[in-house]
Amino acid sequence: KFIFVQTLDDYGVIEFNWIRKRWNYHEQMWQRKGKLMVIEKFFDELDNWFYLYYDTELFKEKILPYVKRDNENISRLYNNLQLVLGLTYLQLPFGALKGIMQYNFRYIDEDVFGKAYETFLAGVRHDEGVYYTPKYITQYIAENTVARVFDGLLEQIKAKLESEDFEEAKKLVSRFASVSVLDPACGSGSFLIKAIRLILARYSMLNQLIDDSERMLIKKNAGYMGSLDPPREVKVKFEQIAEIRKIAGPKTGRELISKVLVRHIHGNDLDKMALEVAKVNIWLEAIKLAPKEFRFDKLPAETNYILPILRINLCNGDSVFGLPEDMTVDLLVRSYRTDVVKLCELWQGYLDTPMQPELVDQIEEIKEKLRRELDSEFRKILEAKQLSQVLSESKPFHWALEFWHLYFDSTGNPLPKSERGVDVVLGNPPYERIQVLKKKSPTYVKYLDNAGFSAATRNYDLAVIFIEKGFKLLKEMGEFGYIVTNKFMQADYGEGIRDYLSKGKFVRELIDFGDQQVFDDATTYTVLVFLSSRPTESFKYALVRKLERTLGQLMKVKHHEKLDEPSLTVLTQKEDTLSEKPWIFARSEEEKVLDKLRGFDRLSKIAKVFVGLQTSADPVYVVRLIEDKGALVKVYSKARDKEYVLEKELLKPMLMGRDIKRWWIDKFQSMVLFPYEIKDGKAILLDQETLEQKYPRIWQYLQNNKEDLGKRERGTFIERPDWYGYVYLKNMDKFDLPKIMTQVLANRSAFAIDHEGKYYFPGGGNAGGYGVILKEQNLSLKFLCALLNSSLLDWNLKKISTRFRGGFYSYARRFLERLPIKIPETKVEYMLAEKCEQSVNRILQLMKAR
User: Between 505 and which of 57, 575, 738, 801 could a Cys-Cys bridge form, CB atoms 3.0 to 4.6 Å apart?
Assistant: First the structure.
């Protein structure tokens, strides 16, 4: 409330120093009656005055009912309120603490409410995969989608006006006035605010075109200007210009801003409070755009409703959870046609006068009735799939009802399918891996899996569902722009969305930030995805190597087909280079190398890549080596926080990811308790009797940790006879074999050979490792290790792998298996392979000698 008030103050919309003057007045008038009375009177005037002049829902809610009324608490509120407002100062070692009045909100060019909301609820929002988007990102996405659509229309309108084809110009202006912009996860409205500014600028351009056209017409027909009976064709042209101007609406000011908001701006979010912040943000933006017209002493006396009511445009629900749009349209037409016709009539009235609350109330009343009916239909569908429980986990959102005017014409008839939906979808949808979501809402995940999304493949991210849903909400000629996690371009889970987008040739532009961090408070690897519902033959790919955090850097992508700078690379590629396979982007000279490498066998054909041990109880099984005592070893157990002396035979050298060095393993610090024996290529758990008799120290150690080991798998292990074994038994027979090993995360290839099958390593996450064993013995490990450590294959891996902060890449199995391996076939190739082995031998000798 106070930021709203101070913003109006700084823009000269209300009396200067409103907060200080009104506080001083009430303090002087009521301080004899106590601090509570001063606060009550001050808050009452604040709420009443601003509600009557600027009627927004913000000033309906009262603060004091939430405040404890004891004297100590009221005194604290009284003192702290003055500090926060800047009526008094708190002196700190580094200077005085600023209050709201000490900031000039004319110079704070960002949606302060949104940032404040994200900051104070950061824990909640980040847990849900929701991040506040920096201004240069929201601005570029709006420029590359909203401005793109409007500018395209302006070019066409200009051509028609100049050729005096006013009938076609009128159709195009009608189209201009009906362009719809949607953020399906709008949060506090930062994307929508950027869209509002761009749209208002385009209205100025449109009105200038109309003015120019009218002037040219007057000049051309100057001889008829004083005539009472000009030729019919001249008269018709002037009438058409007047009709075009009427469609465009007011030229400037408060009325135009209101029409822009209700005509063009649409948002949805599951977080109801974020929507309230979005409304205030948009209202403030409206006032900032035409402050003189919102001055309290110039407002019309006959109405309180100066700002448009946004309940119709900003809705609350789950964007990916509800009835399909075509099904909703069919249901509404078949069973509720009268209601739809009434909604369309009310919508026309709302467009003409968006400050009429009675119209909004009528619309909401009809929508609420239809919402109940559609929810009932949706429940039946969910019950048939045994998924009705999901209704308790989220709030259904039926797009063709909530934004019915985007699916029906002005008479209530369904629009043709190509014209249904919105012109622009933009935003920053939630990012959340389905494994995480499954723990919180398993039924919801089951719903997504069965809702017909092409993107719901493997362990997908919620972001790819939002990409698909948002794209499907577009009209036939629509534009789409999101910032999302970039993992979908290479990860297995992205196969579905890659297939969907590549088959339709929908990709227009990708700006990949690689390991550069866009969000201040979260390590998230992101990409800007721009799609067009018109198939394209080529697209731009840009890689940001060094993020400058400016709009200017991103605009270079818009203005260049090709660019190669230290901080930014821009490529233009054919659309048919994309498929369901991981997306690889390369310069033309790099593409030649990649083409040649594609002709070789993959590593998966000649070798098996396996993940490390997954004990599910590393603090128990993995111990730190202190001293080797021959048949015994002294170790430290993290689980018990004490030292033990255990039998060495069942303790294997354990390499954590950081211990696996390039070429050579010179030492290890950890050991893993491995209570198994390998028989006929299988790992068999040693029985309790064997452990008790042959390895009494280890058996006692396991007994000491029985309670912790029993807690695994939700406590089911405690009653099992194999309670001391591992949970996951994959690949346990492979560690004793000769192999190549690698870290999972590294900034360059770091493959090392274990000739003796001596070393074990953990799996899972980014701190473990992977092993490579040959399927056929006619190839040497040294030759394969030479190839894997080569700069060529490392370059190839970095083209297909996921990049992490600090220049690190993933060397996970899904990337390693795709590496090309040239198997020697000719005499010359065998000689080269032998030279490779000799080089490896020399490297190993030098490393041993260090």
Answer: 575
